[in-house]
Design goal:
Elements lengths: L1 H17 L3 H22 L4 H24 L9 H25 L6 H16 L5 H7 L2 H23 L15
Organism: Macroxyela ferruginea
Membrane topology: Multi-pass membrane protein
EC number: 7.1.1.2
């Protein structure tokens, strides 16, 4: 399942490059955020981090939606049939590849020992529930570097946007004060 989601994120990321309409780019970014949140939730014991990640990104997307809709309110959305064909064909290819890998290459029917092992794992997770353990995985080991890289990238992006934006120009500028 995770391999399928990874491939889907990769394909959607490649299609993001071809997007020209700002609202379509926002929708694609929202879908990417949802997929990354699902992958993060499936990789850990708790979905709290992925839930908070999705809510923060959704809040930022709402602000961007207001800004972009005021900028490009009259721009028409061009629907490309070739792009839609490529999207559907790649999704179908991914689905077939995922099912081929799942049922043909790695076919192992569940035996009673595997079923017992799965049920014992769920039981141990409930008994060994430590509050800081799911969050601890994000800051230790190899994912700690990725988290630090993400935080520094967001800080650099924030500084660049603040330097680029002029408050007194643009669609969300302040109105004139009445005297």
């Amino acid at each position: 399942m995770l391999h399928f989601l990874y491939l889907l994120c990769l394909i959607l990321g490649l299609f993001f490059i071809k997007m020209t309409h700002p609202l379509a780019m926002g929708l694609m970014l929202l879908i990417q955020t949802f997929l990354v949140s699902v992958i993060t939730g499936l990789s850990t014991q708790s979905f709290w981090f992925s839930y908070i990640l999705f809510l923060v990104m959704l809040g930022g997307m709402l602000v961007l939606f207001i800004y972009v809709s005021s900028l490009a309110s009259n721009e028409l959305f061009k629907f490309s049939l070739t792009m839609m064909f490529v999207v559907i064909a790649s999704m179908l290819f991914l689905f077939i590849l995922y099912n081929l890998e799942l049922y043909v290459i790695n076919y192992q029917p569940l035996s009673t020992s595997n079923e017992e092992m799965l049920s014992n794992t769920d039981l141990e997770m409930c008994q060994d529930n430590k509050m800081g353990q799911p969050v601890n995985k994000f800051y230790n080991g190899p994912s700690g570097f990725v988290t630090l890289l993400l935080v520094s990238f967001l800080l650099l992006t924030l500084i660049a946007i603040v330097k680029i934006i002029n408050i007194f120009m643009g669609p969300l500028r302040k109105g004139k004060k009445k005297q």
